[in-house]
Design a protein that fits this description.
Oligomer: single chain
Helix content: 40-55%
Number of helices: 12
CATH architecture of the largest domain: 3-Layer(aba) Sandwich
Number of domains: 2
Shape: globular
CATH class of the largest domain: Alpha Beta
Largest sheet: 6 strands, antiparallel
Length: 407
C-alpha cells in the first residue's frame, strides 16, 4: 500500500499543507511543535478515522477555525488507485469519502489501508491497565478481519442493552422484580453475549499466539538482550485456558501442516460453555453492581520478559524495547497475512535509541516492502543507512507548519 500525496487544511498548526511522498522511507525532521506529528497523524486519520494522539476531534481543528479537511491519494494491490477524504466540522461531526462517494459507516474504513503506528503515546500499552491492551488487540485484529470488527460492534451493543437492564434492577425504584424473573429477562441477552463474546475471545487467543512469535524474533533483533518475551491472554471466564489450547492447536498444525476445522469449533464450544457458567456464578454480583462483569470486555493481555510480568517489574528501557518489538511484530504479521503491505509510522522513536538500535531498526525498515514515515527532532544518522538521493526515499524539513525537501 502506498500514499502518494496528502493534503491538510486547517488541521492542527497547518493552514494548508500538501506533501508528495516517496514510495519507501520518508523522514520528517523538525523541532518540537513544528508540525511533524500532525502530518503523520493526518495519515492515521485517513486510514483509521481517528487520531493516534488525542481522543477528541475538536482538539485537532486549527485554532480560530471550525472544521478541518484531509485528502490522500492511495494505491494498493486490491484497489489500484483511490482517494480518501475526511472532513470534520464542529456540530456536524466526521464524514469520510472514498473517490468522493460518502461512506455510510466509519467502520467501513478500517482495514482499507492497513497501518502500524509506534509513538510516545504507546507507553501506556505496556505500562497502563488492561483497557490499553484490549484496545490494541481489538484494533490489531479489526484491520485483519471485518467479521471480527462486526462482532466487536455487535457485542458492545448487546452489552449496552444488558447493562441497562442490570442498572434498572440495581437502582430499584419502579422496576422491582424477583431474581427468577430477572433471569428470564436477561436470558436472551445472555445468549447473544455468550455467542458473540466467545467468537471474540477465540479470535484473540489465536492471533496472540501467532503474534507472540513475531514479537520474540523482533525483540531479540532489536534489543540484543538474552531475554524471552511472552504474551498471555487472561480470560475472566474461569475454567478455560485459551493459551494452552492455542499452543496445542498451533503445535499440531505445524506437524500436520493442515488445520483441523473441528478443533476450532470444539474450542469455541468450550468457551461458550465456560462463559455461560461464569455468567451464572456472577449473577448476584452483577445484579448488585448493575453491570456485566464477565466477557472479553474484562479480559487482560499480559506481557512478559523471562516469565516476569513486564507491567509490574520491567525497566524503562525494557518497556520501550518491548513496545517497539510488539509494533514491528504487528508489521511483520500484517505483511504476511495481507495482500497490501501496511504503512508504518514511527513518531519520535529514535531519540531514545542508541546507535546500534538505530542501525538495526533502519535495516528492518529497509527490508520492509511497504511505505514508512519517521519523525525526528534531529537527523540522527539516517543518511548513513538511507540513500535520500534515490527517488525511493525522501527527507523533508518541517518548520512552523511549512514543508521543504532537504538532503
Amino acid at each position: 500500500m502506498r500514499i502518494h500525496e496528502i493534503e491538510l487544511i486547517h488541521f492542527r498548526n497547518h493552514t494548508h499543507t500538501k506533501v508528495a511522498w516517496a514510495p519507501y522511507i520518508n523522514v520528517l525532521i523538525g523541532p518540537n511543535g513544528a508540525g511533524k506529528t500532525s502530518i503523520v497523524d493526518a495519515i492515521h486519520y485517513l486510514c483509521m478515522s481517528r487520531s493516534f494522539v488525542t481522543n477528541s476531534d475538536t482538539h485537532v481543528v486549527k485554532q480560530d477555525t471550525k472544521s478541518f479537511l484531509l485528502r490522500g491519494q492511495f494505491q494498493g494491490q486490491i484497489r489500484a488507485q483511490f482517494q480518501l477524504a475526511l472532513s470534520y466540522s464542529r456540530g456536524e461531526g466526521k464524514k469520510i469519502f472514498v473517490n468522493e462517494g460518502p461512506l455510510d459507516r466509519l467502520s467501513d474504513l478500517i482495514g482499507m489501508v492497513p497501518m502500524v503506528v509506534l509513538s510516545p503515546q504507546d507507553e501506556q500499552l505496556t505500562k497502563g491497565g488492561p483497557v490499553e491492551r484490549r484496545l490494541f488487540i481489538d484494533a490489531f485484529i479489526s484491520q485483519l478481519s471485518r467479521s471480527y470488527l462486526r462482532n466487536l460492534i455487535e457485542y458492545r451493543q448487546v452489552r449496552r442493552q444488558r447493562n441497562k437492564l442490570l442498572q434498572k434492577y440495581a437502582e430499584g425504584g419502579s422496576f422491582r422484580v424477583n431474581k427468577i424473573l430477572m433471569q428470564n429477562y436477561l436470558e436472551p441477552w445472555n445468549e447473544q453475549l455468550v455467542r458473540i463474546g466467545a467468537k471474540i475471545m477465540d479470535e484473540r487467543v489465536s492471533v496472540i499466539d501467532q503474534l507472540e512469535r513475531f514479537v520474540q524474533f523482533n525483540f531479540t533483533e532489536i534489543s540484543g538482550l538474552e531475554m524471552q518475551p511472552g504474551m498471555r491472554y487472561d480470560a475472566m471466564v474461569t475454567g478455560w485456558d485459551g493459551n494452552s489450547e492455542a499452543k496445542a492447536v498451533s503445535d499440531e498444525d505445524s506437524k500436520n501442516k493442515e488445520t483441523d476445522s473441528t478443533t476450532a469449533l470444539t474450542r469455541l464450544e468450550r468457551i461458550e460453555k465456560c462463559f455461560k457458567e461464569a455468567l451464572d456464578k456472577q449473577f448476584d454480583k452483577e445484579l448488585e453492581r448493575g453491570q456485566s462483569l464477565v466477557g472479553p470486555h474484562r479480559d487482560e493481555i499480559v506481557f512478559y520478559l523471562d516469565e516476569v510480568e513486564l507491567r509490574r517489574y520491567g525497566s524503562q528501557g525494557q518497556h520501550r524495547l518491548f513496545a517497539l518489538a510488539l509494533k514491528l511484530g504487528q508489521l511483520d504479521y500484517y505483511s504476511k497475512e495481507l495482500e497490501d503491505a501496511p504503512l508504518l509510522v514511527l513518531d519520535d522513536v529514535f531519540g531514545d535509541l542508541d546507535e546500534e538500535r538505530v542501525r538495526v531498526l533502519l535495516e528492518h525498515l529497509k527490508a520492509h516492502q511497504g511505505q514508512s514515515f519517521i519523525t525526528a527532532a534531529h537527523p540522527v544518522a539516517f543518511s548513513d543507512f538511507v540513500d535520500f538521493d534515490a527517488p525511493d526515499h525522501m527527507c523533508i524539513t518541517i518548520k512552523d507548519g511549512n514543508v521543504a525537501e532537504t538532503k
